[in-house]
Design brief:
4 helices, single chain, 35% helix, binds calcium ion
Length: 181
């Protein structure tokens, strides 16, 4: 039942976001027990939609070590979309799509500048520093998303699991009460 509920929730969220435009996985790597998928060239929103469709999000960079992993694995050759998006006009107004707190950033000098008609999405340069960019699949370079698939369940999946356990526990208690009566 829980499995079906999760499946339905994912299906609904995929429908709500719209199918990602032909985004595919072109490489995979592991780091710290987590799986990372390099996606084909796409806009940020199509890349994040693909990540959501597999029950994950674009990568949230926890620290310099994770950033170094991304750059040494793919980012020294390709500019990578991160799961970091603008939530307001100030330089600090960014959030991770997976909901974790923003405790590390690696902006290039003068970035994020929210240039031109607005730059709401973060990506890496080949030197490992970050820039905010519009929702394009390529500007100076093609843009490639990276999905981070956590080895531990996402918080929302975990909450569903706990809710399911609570339900089972409640039924067991009711059954036990009946027996005792
Ligand atoms: Ca991470
Ligand atoms: Ca910028």
């Amino acid at each position: 039942m829980i499995k079906n509920f999760v499946k339905t929730a994912i299906a609904v969220s995929v429908l709500a976001c719209g199918a990602a435009n032909a985004v595919s996985v072109i490489d995979t790597a592991t780091y710290n027990g987590n799986t990372y998928q390099l996606l084909s060239q796409a806009t940020w929103t199509d890349s994040e939609a693909y990540a959501v469709s597999v029950g994950a999000h674009l990568v949230a960079v926890d620290n310099a070590a994770e950033n170094n992993f991304l750059i040494s694995t793919w980012g020294s050759q390709k500019t990578l979309w991160l799961g970091l998006f603008r939530t307001g006009p100030n330089p600090a107004d960014f959030a991770w799509t997976n909901g974790q707190a923003v405790t590390f950033t690696n902006w290039a000098s003068g970035e994020p500048n929210n240039c031109c008609s607005g730059e709401h999405y973060a990506h890496t340069y080949t030197n490992g520093q970050w820039n905010d960019l519009a929702n394009v699949s390529g500007y100076a370079f093609p843009q490639y998303g990276v999905v981070e698939i956590s080895a531990v369940p996402e918080p929302e999946t975990y909450a569903l699991m706990l809710a399911g356990l609570g339900l089972v526990g409640g039924l067991a208690r009711r059954r036990a009460k009946k027996l005792a009566a």
